[in-house]
Amino acid sequence: MLLLALAGACTNSSTPKPETVLQESGQAMAKVKSVSADIAFGPGLSFQGFTLSSATSKIQVPGDSDTVIKVKQQDFLVDVEVITSGGHVWIKVPFGRFTEVTPDEAAQLPSIGGLFDAQHGLPALLPQGQSPAADGSEQMGGVDCDRVKTTYTADQVGQALGGLKPASDIQARLWVGHDDHLLRRVVLTGQLTSAGAASSVDVHLHDFNQPVSIATPGGATGG
Fold first, then answer.
1. CA–CA distance, 99 with 81 (Å, rounded to integer)
2. CA torsion angle for 212, 214, 220, 223 (degrees, to 10)?
3. Maximum distance among all alpha carbons in the chain?
4. How does pLDDT run across 202-218, given as a tens digit for each residue?
5. Least C-beta-crowded within 10 Å: which of 157, 188, 191, 197?
């Protein structure tokens, strides 16, 4: 009986509760100063009239980012670039130049840098997952991760992503570093933009707290 109890204690210590995983990840993400992201978009998502395919972003907390979005234009993939720095937002569409958008226009754009906002971004969102469930473990980018499945409300996801307003609760699958508790990957699935149109977003986060320089179109540097 003693051996069984010890074996159970070892198992419990190596497999944290999903609620604990989310809580510790929120705390760890609140300390992130910079990060890079690779994003894959599911079908049906659009941006400025273009169909989204994928994106890469480098982020300087609290709110600066340089994001290149690959969009489909007819049968071709072209780049749309969005730079946020010092409270200003610039956008460059295919074959155009950078144009600063108004605050109202900026509020309608998904905020990649805002994902790390302490009040509304991932640090606040992660622990609020509903009915979290352990989903095994897996290496992500060479890091041992605990997987968790959970659900977030449309309002919670909308606050974290800014201009993206889901039409329903969103299912999330998360990969969290077992030792450093950093979120390495998250897959969001559900009606991300409109009722009756299910889609997904797959985000890989890497290069935490590495030096980041974000050059604004005017030549200044944010971050």
1. 10
2. -50
3. 72
4. 999 999 999 998 888 86
5. 197
